[in-house]
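Design request, tokens follow.
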């Protein structure tokens, strides 16, 4: 009998709200080991904050097996349930040859919501709204995150508003960057700040407005990013 990774209620929440935080999807021991390796790969000493620096051009892609171990069959199947027309063959096509580790260094407060955006909206980047190269993306958390310590900030149901805008004028809003330019003019409602634990995975709809959060916590925040 196939193991159930996501419940019907979780799948419904993803469709309606645009996100779902799946607790403990990655075994804590795997996440904790990946966190240790993330410190080492970045040249950070966990006990010495003076080493927590980000140099221009510093890579965020790594190939250490302890990081790649985070891409478990359960993670792939959960993603398949959310984005694939055929979840049974989806895991075989999932790229897992490198780990994209996003780090957020601690910074002084006060904490605030900033940098609302859509993924894929960078300068001179042309990702189609109507035939997006991905349907969802995920943040895979490697350690427990305290309030305002780098937990992702989301605007629930904003993917419905962005999709409705794109469909209202499909020729005007061909690219994700064009939709992104309208964010500051839109009422997106209240935000939610997730406070995940090690091994939790946050799946986010491709048109969900979210923020690069401030980290006013006591340590660097590490999370793996994956798109499907």
């Amino acid at each position: 009998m196939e193991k159930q990774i996501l419940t019907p209620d979780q799948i419904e929440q993803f469709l309606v709200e645009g996100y779902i935080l799946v607790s403990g999807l990655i075994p804590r021991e795997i996440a904790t080991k990946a966190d240790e390796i993330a410190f080492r790969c970045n040249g950070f000493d966990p006990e010495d904050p003076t080493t927590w620096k980000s140099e221009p051009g510093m890579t965020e892609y790594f190939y250490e097996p302890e990081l790649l171990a985070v891409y478990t069959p359960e993670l792939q199947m959960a993603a398949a349930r959310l984005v694939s027309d055929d979840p049974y063959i989806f895991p075989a096509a999932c790229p897992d040859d490198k780990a994209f580790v996003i780090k957020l260094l601690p910074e002084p407060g006060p904490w605030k919501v900033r940098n609302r955006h859509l993924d894929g909206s960078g300068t001179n980047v042309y990702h189609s709204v109507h035939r997006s190269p991905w349907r969802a993306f995920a943040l895979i958390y490697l350690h427990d995150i305290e309030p305002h310590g780098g937990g992702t900030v989301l605007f629930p149901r904003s993917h419905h508003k962005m999709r409705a805008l794109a469909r209202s004028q499909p020729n005007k809003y061909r690219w994700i960057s064009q939709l992104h330019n309208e964010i500051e003019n839109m009422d997106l409602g209240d935000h939610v700040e997730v406070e995940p634990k090690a091994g939790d995975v946050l799946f986010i709809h491709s048109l969900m407005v979210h923020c690069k959060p401030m980290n006013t916590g006591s340590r660097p925040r590490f999370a793996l990013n994956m798109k499907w």
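Comment from the thread starter after seeing the answer: thanks! Residues 19 and 141 are 15 Å apart (CA to CA).
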